[in-house]
């Protein structure tokens, strides 16, 4: 037994979250791609079967009331809320992340007063996931604003009295860099602008603190660290103090104050319900609700502590097993700047990842030369980490 193998066993023996692995459907593959698609929680298949066979098959239309279908978006939002540091009544689940980014950005421009109030600039993270940039450009055009793309580090210097809204990613999807949500939110507010955060790569992996840090609006997906399943619905956070003024650009019948009144004119529902649009996707919605049960009794702080321990250990193992110069870590080493993934720059990265997957180590490849490994503390152990690094070393050897 190697020294690192022995250390992995010791770390696993002392892991307070190790028992959570049994809440998932897993095999002997080392699965380090939960930052793209989380593993299947064991309770989901049975719950989905019940939704299909009993709720839909037997109760049919009655399930909107009797099975709680109608209230699912806000009920599940309240399940997500503690995972991102929000009190109940501020998150609604539904639609895709892209659609929610659009709602949040246009709503934010309107909250800021828009061009009529001299707030005619939308600032976006230049390193963002491409869709966020596409949506930001369209939202700017539609609201009569100009778009300004800057890196997160450049945001404080880019702010002015013209800034309406700033859209930022909490964790960079390529490198795993964790950005300073408290500091950047404070800077945005000091300029009189609205802060919108994309939490896709942080929710379920580390504390976010939406309420504590004064975030105005936030969006996120649920199929990564929240394990909601492929294409599971996203969510929209609207800070309580903004809810009465939040003016969604997509006023659907589900967000009407009287959804069954069939009024010719729109009157928004109170609270975060304004973020709803059309009929919820019930099958995906209730699969997500079942998936969130894996979080029962789990502390996000404990998850964060294990995440950092896992990524630290992975980097230690890579340093030992991989010949010097074969890979370059592009993820920050400082804990305060690291999410729950490690990105390694590597020659011929696409082919290397194919070979890793063939040997039972699943991560992913990002163009042009990045190997990306995501660490989901709920089901990834230290022996997994040691094995992944060892196989990487053998593959590159």
Structure summary, number of beta strands: 15
Termini Cα gap? 20 Å
Going across the major beta sheet, what is the strand order? 4-10-9-8-7-5-6
Number of helices: 12
The shape is globular
Tell me the series of helices and strands, N- to C-terminal. HEEEHHHEHEHEHEHEEEHHEEHEEEH
Largest sheet: number of strands, sense, barrel closure = 7 strands, mixed
Q: From the helix content, strand content and strand pairing, which structural class follows?
A: alpha/beta
| Overall helicity | 25-40%
Question: What does the radius of gyration come to?
Answer: 22 Å
* Beta-strand percent range: 5-15%
Please, could you describe this protein's structure?
Helices cover 35% and strands 15% of the residues. It has helices spanning 3-13, 44-59, 63-66, 72-80, 97-112, 130-142, 155-158, 181-190, 282-291, 300-321, 349-358, 382-396; strands at residues 24-25, 30-31, 40-41, 91-93, 121-125, 146-150, 163-169, 194-198, 217-220, 235-238, 327-329, 341-346, 361-362, 364-366, 370-374. β5, α6 and β6 (146-150) form a beta-alpha-beta unit. It is globular. The model has no long low-confidence stretch (mean pLDDT 98). With 397 residues, it is of the alpha/beta class. It has 12 helices and 15 strands.
Topology record:
Blueprint: H1 3-13, E1 24-25, E2 30-31, E3 40-41, H2 44-59, H3 63-66, H4 72-80, E4 91-93, H5 97-112, E5 121-125, H6 130-142, E6 146-150, H7 155-158, E7 163-169, H8 181-190, E8 194-198, E9 217-220, E10 235-238, H9 282-291, H10 300-321, E11 327-329, E12 341-346, H11 349-358, E13 361-362, E14 364-366, E15 370-374, H12 382-396
Parallel strand pairs: 2-13, 5-6, 5-7, 7-8, 8-9
Antiparallel strand pairs: 1-3, 4-10, 9-10, 11-12, 12-15, 14-15
Helix pairs in contact: 1-12, 2-9, 4-9, 5-6, 10-12
